[in-house]
Amino acid sequence: MTTKYTIDAKGKKLGRIASSAAALLMGKNSTAFSKNKVFDVRVHITNASGLDINPKKARATIFYRHSGYPGGLKEITLAEYIVKKGYKELVRKTIFGMLPTNTLRSKIIKNLVVTE
Hints:
Structural class: alpha/beta
Number of strands: 5
C-alpha cells in the first residue's frame, strides 16, 4: 500500500520543506524504518513557486560544478538557477542533496513529485 504525503510550500523556507520531505521519503517516520529499504511512499510538494526565499540569500548563494577539465569550474547564483531551471528543479536538487549517498538514492528520489 502506497502512503501519500502532500506538503504545501507556499510561504515556507526551502530547507524546512526539503528536510521534512527527505525524512518522509526515507521512511524515517515509519516504525519499520531500515536504511537498506526503499519505502513505498509518495511525497507531493505543491506551490513550489511560492517558497519564501530572501532576495539577499538568492544573490549570495552560489552553486558550483566542475567539468573535470582545467579551468572548468562553473558557478551560478540561486537567483540565476531559479530563472534557468525553475523552482521545481531547485526543490528536487535540494531534497536529493539531503538523501543518503548510496545506491538507493536515485530510487528514492523517483517517489518525489514537485509542482509549481
